[in-house]
Amino acid sequence: MERRAVEARDAVEFEPGPVRLPAWAATIVSKLTLLLQPEWLTLHAPVACWATINRQGVPVMPSAITRAFLGFIAAAISVLTFHQGIVWLYQLAHAAPLPPWSLAPVPPLGVPRVLDLCFWGGLYGILFGLIWPWLALPKWLAGVILGVIAASVGWLVVAPLKGQPLGFGWHPNSMLRSLIINGGWGLGVALILPLLMPRRTGRRRHARVRTG
């Protein structure tokens, strides 16, 4: 009886306690924990804010409203830089059908063409921002695909609505130019959007691992 009591007491005395990991190991464990939890994709508060810190002290993904707004802004900026920049390069090669950064009015509202492009591009940016957390492809590749989709919509939907032939006549050079311009625009969206995302950081808590 006494022997069992002594063994039980020794087991209690020598029971391993919490082990504090080194800082670098605790950081790795913390990041792996975040990746395994869907918590980082949502906000703890129902309101849209520019940065929210979760329990681990790491910024979580912005809300859907914030991502949609930033997607619109990123797409509009990409129109003014990547999209119209490529059009400008085509103009230098005397291969652009329209001048870049054109202020020519677009019917029926007479909005300057460059602003019209920013608006419609921004609508695609809203969609891109909303699906941003769930993109399994590399972001740059997803952006290029976004541009290809925009070009395809232009061929199959926009052209007939404007009374133009389907696919703008299916001219290979025109289609290739459209793919390059819109693909470059989509790439720009994918590169600009992360730069607009909130980047506030908080103090991380070190993970503690219990053994035994």
Give structural notes.
There is one protein chain. The protein has 6 helices and 4 strands. The radius of gyration is 27 Å and the shape is globular. The protein is 58% helix and 4% strand. The longest helix is centred in the middle third of the chain and has 29 residues, at 64-92. It has 212 residues and is mostly helical. The protein has helices at residues 2-13, 23-36, 64-92, 113-131, 139-161, 172-196, and strands spanning 19-20, 105-106, 111-112, 208-209. The chain has 2 domains: 2-61 and 200-209, no CATH class; 64-196, no CATH class. It starts with a helix and ends with a strand.
Which short descriptors sum up this protein?
2 domains; 6 helices; 58% helix; 212 residues; two-stranded antiparallel ribbon; globular; disordered C terminus
Give the secondary structure arrangement, pairings included.
Layout: H1 2-13, E1 19-20, H2 23-36, H3 64-92, E2 105-106, E3 111-112, H4 113-131, H5 139-161, H6 172-196, E4 208-209
Antiparallel strand pairs: 1-4, 2-3
In percent terms, what proportion of residues is strand? under 5%
Radius of gyration: 27 Å
Low-confidence spans: pLDDT under 50, at least 5 residues? 11-19, 31-52, 201-212
The whole-number mean of residue pLDDT values reads: 77
The total of beta strands comes to 4
Report how far the terminal alpha carbons are from each other: 25 Å
Q: Order of strands in the sheet with the most strands? A: 1-4
Overall domain count: 2
Number of alpha- plus pi-helical segments: 6
**Could you give a short account of the major beta sheet?**
2 strands, antiparallel
Q: What shape does the CA trace take? A: globular
Assembly state (oligomeric): single chain
